[in-house]
């Protein structure tokens, strides 16, 4: 498995910076474009838990969008570890696969919620984490 992380330059200092954690390149691209159109900056992208934790420590993103299914650890376990070590870091979970239990499991893991990937474009993300500040 190749571990991947990309730190991206902030678009504007006043914009909220989001770390996306997803092992699927196409999903990372779609999420990146969706977030940018909503005024968020992408702090970085990771495809596994190992680099995601390093990234959070090094770059302190304002929020995390976390896929449920990753190759090295469950997204629910990652959310629990992230929210235990960074209690004020808002984590939103997502997945292309939707199970009724995901909503309760996301909440139990300390995440702010769960949104199916197919509904991310329809949901007000500011309900889960800080809205981007407008310059």
What does this structure look like?
This protein has helices at 25-37, 49-59, 75-85, 101-108, and strands at 5-7, 17-21, 41-46, 63-67, 91-95, 113-116. It is an alpha/beta fold and 135 residues long. It has a single domain, classed as 3-Layer(aba) Sandwich (Rossmann fold). A 6-stranded mixed beta sheet has the order 1-3-2-4-5-6, with helices on both faces.
Major sheet details:
6 strands, mixed
- CATH fold description: Rossmann fold
**Which structural category do the helix and sheet elements fall into?**
alpha/beta
Residue fraction in strands:
15-25%
The low-confidence runs, each spanning 5 or more residues with pLDDT under 50, are 9-14
Helix percent reads 25-40%
Q: Would you identify the CATH architecture?
A: 3-Layer(aba) Sandwich
Q: What is the name of the CATH class?
A: Alpha Beta
CATH H-level name... which superfamily?
Response regulator
Order of helices and strands: EEHEHEHEHE
What's the overall average pLDDT, rounded?
89
Strand order of the largest sheet: 1-3-2-4-5-6
**Alpha-carbon distance between the two ends:** 40 Å
Number of strands: 6
Number of domains: 1
- Work out the helix count: 4
Please tell me how large the radius of gyration is: 13 Å
The shape, in one word, is: globular
């Amino acid at each position: 498995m190749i571990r991947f992380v990309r730190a991206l330059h902030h678009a504007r200092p006043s914009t909220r910076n989001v770390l996306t954690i997803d092992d699927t390149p196409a999903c990372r691209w779609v999420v990146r474009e969706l977030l940018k159109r909503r005024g968020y900056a992408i702090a970085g992208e990771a495809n596994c838990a190992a680099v995601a934790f390093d990234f959070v420590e090094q770059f302190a993103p304002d929020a995390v969008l976390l896929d449920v299914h990753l190759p090295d650890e469950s997204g629910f376990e990652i959310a629990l570890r992230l929210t235990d070590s960074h209690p004020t870091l808002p984590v939103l979970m997502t997945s292309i696969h939707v199970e009724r239990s995901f909503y309760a499991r996301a909440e139990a893991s300390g995440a702010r919620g769960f949104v199916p990937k197919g509904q991310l474009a329809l949901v007000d993300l500011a309900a889960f984490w800080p809205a981007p500040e407008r310059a």
